Amino acid sequence: MKATLREQHAILNIQNFDFTFSTLTNKAANLPEIAAIHSLTIKADNARDLRIAAETEHSDVKRELARAEGDVEQIVTRINRDEARLASGTPSPKELEQLQHEIGTLGVRRTELEEIELEIMMRIDGIKARITELSEQESALAAEITELEIKKANALAVINADIDATKSDRASEITSIGAELVALYEKIRASNNGTGAAALVGNQCKGCHLTVNNVELQRIASLAEDEVVRCEECRCILVRGL
Fold first, then answer.
1. Sheet holding 229-230, edge to edge
2. Do 99 and 82 touch, CB atoms closer than 8 A?
3. What number of other Cβ atoms are within 10 A of residue 93's Cβ?
4. Do 239 and 8 form a contact (C-beta atoms < 8 A)?
5. Number of helices and strands (H, E) in the chain?
6. Could you read off the pLDDT of 46-55 as tens digits, one per residue?
7. How far is CA 85 from CA 94, 101, 105, 147, 238, in A?
8. What pTM does this model have?
9. For the stretch 122-161, what's the b/e string if a residue is b when 16 or more beta carbons lie within 10 angstroms of its beta carbon?
């Protein structure tokens, strides 16, 4: 294949643009903010799930407290009723004895139920504190994520501007190259890990970084400057005269 030295140098410029594009794309995909946002999002989701679970537990325990309060209220009602009968002076001696015994038993039961009620209230206070702590964690993590999202957006804006400039320069440069050489370059690049052209510097191919043997170097030196040369090892277009 024939191509002017200017075209061969231009195809090397295209290769540099493609390397730059690849580097920028990789940089955009691997911004440190992305990994940090992912990690913080997992923590935020975990805090949210724990908060929801705590809120559910809070509702369950509040119902438990309501039942305990109802039990205490029933005992208090019975005690008040019995004490009222005692105060009335109408019961017989036997009934008085029974009422006094019942009031004593109910008093013990009331104490037990009030202790249960107090324990439940303490559990509720603990759950409320946990909900508050988890909510604060969520808010703090959300603020960190928002800050990182802004940093990521700013970094991507810079990278995307560089990508757009690279694409524009590539599009301008490629108009000066023959379609046949471009097609060859693209074919090689697609099958060679993104490398379609490389400079020949001294006796080394800068594509695969291997040394070109002396016999091949002599053969290349004997070729006209518009003859397109390929590396024997990586098969990329070797650009001479740099």
1. 204-205, 197-201, 237-239, 229-230
2. yes
3. 7
4. yes
5. 5, 4
6. 999 999 999 9
7. 13, 13, 16, 71, 113
8. 0.76
9. eebeebeebbeebeebbeebeeebeebeeebeebbeebee
